[in-house]
Amino acid sequence: MAVSPLVMHPTDALQNSRPVSSPLKNINSAQASSNGTPITAPNPSAPVSLPASLDLAEQLNEEEKRKYVKGKKLGEGTYANVYLGHLKSDPSQFVAIKKIKIQKEYTEGMAPDAVREIKHLQELSHPNIISLHSVFSSKDQNLNLVLEYLPLGDLEMLIRDTERVRYGAADIKAWMGMLTRAVWFCHENFVLHRDIKPNNLLIAADGEVKLADFGLARTFSDPYKPMSSNVITRWYRPPELLYGAKHYSGAVDVWSVGLVFAELIIRMPYIAGNTEMHQISLICNAVGTPTEENWPGVTKLPGYTTEGEVHPVRGKDHYMSLFGTVGAEGVDLLRKTLILDPKKRITALEMLKHEWWHRDPKPTRKQDLPRKSGGQEKVGADLKRRPGIVDEDKSSKVARKLDFGAAK
Amino acid sequence: MATEDARYRQSSQYRLWSFAPSHLATLREKTNALAKSHIANRLRASDPTNQSPPNFLTPEEEYTLLNHFTLELLRAAPYCQLPTDIQATAAIFLRRFYVTNSVMTYPPQELIKTCLFFGCKAEGSFIRVQKIADTFPNTTGEMILAAEYILCQGIRFAFDVRHPFRALEGTVMELRSLGDFDDDRINKAHRRTREILKFSPLVTDVYFHYTPSQIMYAALAMADEELVQRMLQEAFSGQGEEAKNKIWGVIQGCKEMLEREPPEKMAKYSNDPETTKAMKALRKKLAKCRDPDRVDLVALQKARREQAAQKPKAKEDADGDGKVFGNGTLDERESKRRKVAQNGGDIFGPPL
């Protein structure tokens, strides 16, 4: 899909006369048998005969599909299953194949998450955003997204594994730089991600962090068009969304980035509410209570509430005592991402221009960034998330063997 | 090179859906030829007594019908209360779909509805399928959904369409800030350009050949050429005349295409007896030469689902995991044997 297929493929596709399926598969279709007698559909429950040959679009689809070999299942979710895969032409080139399940409850055709994810990943090409190599549909009309394979887990795994993973200010700076660039690029292309959190930040083999999961993303709205405020995982949701704002901006993502930043430093979620109300009260406590003084117009938002006493906005000292390990400049950047009034909150572009990046320590080079320790044996126990290198090798052998089966 | 240009080149609209006119013509001819041979084979196989193929549509006739159905889509869209950008996205989906699919293969009157529905989705507005179905006579939600996958595959999963509408708003702002023209003149040109953009680019091939800003300038030039000249002068100040002239040449090429389908055609179209007659003849011809297997999309969808459901065993094996090394092959053979039996007689003889 990343290559321009329509320039080349139609001719390619036409040369592809090899039947894709076994001859038995078309038994229902009205093909002439050798003696010229037409075979009528023998199955009365399927009176319609499936077209025997593939049309151009189907041929193109088959061709995309045949470029990859699907291997073992890496993960299972309610929305999609993820498989390891590799390029047929080069088994050392791994991909992740995300097969989107048909949602029984959603009776309106293709799932919104899939539409959003495909739409935006088709357009965004950046080193810190997961790349979408291809999309194809399988026989059962399930969507398969061929994504960049990111084998080293996600930032959440690193943050949580306080026993074995050590990292410092320079590492945080490198990761934050990658995250900020990803978010800047989204906003530069008029896309809101709306679900930034540590387990949506995946790590490539070379250590590069990539923003993934665009299932809630959308393009910037026109001024008169309302948007849903029910987006972003609660812990990372900004106050304006908790208050039900229908018109908002890239500032919603910046708040999430700020909370990822805080979490990287203290190695636990900074504002982890159990309910939306709880989330609001935790924000009031940790950051300050939104009022007309610090946020003109906030009381007019549909869901505006405060509980208990009004907390003044926390000062620099408070942040220094909690997050001082990233230095005064780092703390300054963090505070600017957590400004209550979204209009005053720092933008992704301004973040990139912040002084902190230039201060010592210099960000760690990506190849030197900490990885999940514990070796490959331990990773086996962690299979629920993502497998390590040893498993990959094993499964790729399996997949290569399977190739013969798939070519039938 | 301007970075905006580089960024546009990364868009799916440029990568997948922009062609030179000759290339587009070749694609359409290929699609037409493929459909013809497929349908002819299909008919010959099902009725060996009648070996003469039907009178097929030519690529030109397919194009005329495509334009006709694009107009039908644009006429229907307001009844679904869809905003301009969704209408435009739906229209472009329809036109993209029929680059690699023949009008003879999939019925355009059905695809129109699916394009409108999926256009909403692609623009982030998840309206209920029933709302679109209610707009059309004798239409169920199931019928609209039946073609959704076919459509998505046909448009190569490129769901983001870049339109020239916002570009126009931006240019109008720039023209105002220049202060060279009075507001009335700008407003008049603005209105007229919008009118053109809502129609002419959607019933011509300009989206395949030009960028959104080129389309916008071409439409603006139809409304008030001097405004475009002033903008170009501003944009290319300090650069050579050559670069400016080159762009102007491109804009003029686009303008010529747009002028073939002025927005006035929309109103005239439905009550012009001559076009009505011509369309009636073409539709009649289409009815006689279309793919018999793909007229009823609901039934086709059902058959496909059933086929997929019938094959879970073999499918899983192809999908992977260790089964193949164990008794997987046996399982597979067994499942095939069962299926063959179920289908009433093995054409390769009885099982061993």
Instruction: Name the assembly state.
Output: heterodimer
Helices and strands of chain A, in order, run as HHEEEHEEHHEEEEHHHHHHHH
**Beta-strand content of chain B:** under 5%
Largest interface, with counts of residues having CB < 8 Å to the other chain, equals: A-B, 69 and 78 residues
- N-to-C span of chain B: 69 Å
Query: How far apart are the termini of chain A?
Result: 24 Å
- The averaged pLDDT of chain B comes out at 87
Structural class of chain A: alpha+beta
Query: What coarse outline of chain A follows from CA principal-axis ratios?
Result: globular
| Helix-strand makeup class of chain B | mainly alpha
Instruction: Give the beta-strand count of chain B.
Output: 0
Number of helices of chain B: 20
What integer is the average pLDDT of chain A? 81
What does this structure look like?
- The complex is a heterodimer of chains A (408) and B (352).
- Chain A has 408 residues and is of the alpha+beta class.
- Helices cover 34% and strands 11% of the residues of chain A.
- Chain A is built from 13 helices and 9 strands.
- In chain A, the strands form 3 sheets. In chain A, strands 1-2-3-5-4 form a 5-stranded antiparallel beta sheet, with helices on both faces. Chain A has a two-stranded antiparallel sheet with strand order 6-9. A two-stranded antiparallel sheet of chain A has the order 7-8.
- With 352 residues, chain B is mainly alpha-helical.
- Chain B has helices spanning 3-10, 12-17, 21-46, 59-76, 84-100, 108-122, 129-135, 141-146, 148-154, 165-178, 183-197, 206-209, 212-223, 225-235, 241-259, 264-269, 273-289, 297-310, 312-319, 328-342.
- Chain B starts with a helix and ends in a 10-residue tail after the last helix.
- At the A-B interface, α1, α2, β1, α3 and β9 of A face α2, α3, α6, α9 and α18 of B.
